[in-house]
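Private note to self, pasted from the team thread so I don't lose it. Backbone tokens:
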């Protein structure tokens, strides 16, 4: 029978999901104004509802925002949002209350660049074919890395984490592109600019084969935390051959048997208000209908 489909296009690598990015924030009130009111995302209604931390839902991913000295990602987070016009209006609505912070936003072609009150950079994209069916979600995290490291970083993720990683240009610079989930990437872009000192922020990945990366990391002395049966952490991305540290970024690695894996996340429709309420429109979808 003649092949009619590209079956390899549906393959997933070992990393199956980028679940959260964690950065500390010093003020939950300002974080609520920015992430919930301004960006239109949803505070998780079920878990971590106190005043020491907050989890913010974006499609199937989250920001985790524990209270403390602010942490800054050395790059930006790429998000997909359903409606840039609505986003611009809601960001404008919180501008006055955030005027004494680093909050800023600027529209570009097919996106809006946003800076959080403490300086973290986000790029909010309109839905596009390069993000698959995603209407709302965390599509990528971009990190600036030293010159000459992209090739070794890609090799680390291929050889140690067992995921797909390639080196190709990104925004006119060489970069490692790492597949970490369905329509989700980590991008490590080389830059000659001076990089800030790493401050402890982290991200979390779910992986299919949990033990093999652990064994490879453990053999190299890279495991930084044995969290529990379902989770471990590492911080250093190294050249698999020489062991040279290329970049430091804490990774929280979870198995697909972790109790939180594939937990349903609530995503509210921020256009719903008590003054203009429409029954049946409280939630908004994170993906468009699939066309067969």
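Design output:
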């Amino acid at each position: 029978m003649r092949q009619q489909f590209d079956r390899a296009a549906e393959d997933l690598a070992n990393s199956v999901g980028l679940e959260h990015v964690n950065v500390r924030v010093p003020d939950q009130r300002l974080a609520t104004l920015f992430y919930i009111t301004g960006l239109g995302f949803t505070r998780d209604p079920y878990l971590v509802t106190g005043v020491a931390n907050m989890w913010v839902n974006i499609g199937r991913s989250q920001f985790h925002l524990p209270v403390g000295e602010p942490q800054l990602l050395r790059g930006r987070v790429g998000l997909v949002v359903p409606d840039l016009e609505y986003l611009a209006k809601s960001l404008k609505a919180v501008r006055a209350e955030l005027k004494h912070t680093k909050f800023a936003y600027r529209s570009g072609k097919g996106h809006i660049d946003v800076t959080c009150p403490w300086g973290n950079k986000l790029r909010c994209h309109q839905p596009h074919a390069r993000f698959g069916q995603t209407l709302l979600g965390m599509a990528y995290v971009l990190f600036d890395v030293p010159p000459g490291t992209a090739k070794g970083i890609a090799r680390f993720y291929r050889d140690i984490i067992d995921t797909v990683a390639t080196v190709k240009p990104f925004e006119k610079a060489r970069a490692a592109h790492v597949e970490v989930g369905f329509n989700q990437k980590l991008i490590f872009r080389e830059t000659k600019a001076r990089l800030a000192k790493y401050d402890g922020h982290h991200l979390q990945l779910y992986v299919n084969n949990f033990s093999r990366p652990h064994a490879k990391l453990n053999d190299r002395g890279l495991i930084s935390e044995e969290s529990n049966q379902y989770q471990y952490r590492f911080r250093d991305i190294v050249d698999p051959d020489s062991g040279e540290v290329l970049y430091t970024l804490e990774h929280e690695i979870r198995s697909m048997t972790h109790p939180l894996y594939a937990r349903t996340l609530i995503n509210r429709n921020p256009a719903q208000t008590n003054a203009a309420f429409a029954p049946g429109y409280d939630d908004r979808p994170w993906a468009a209908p699939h066309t067969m």
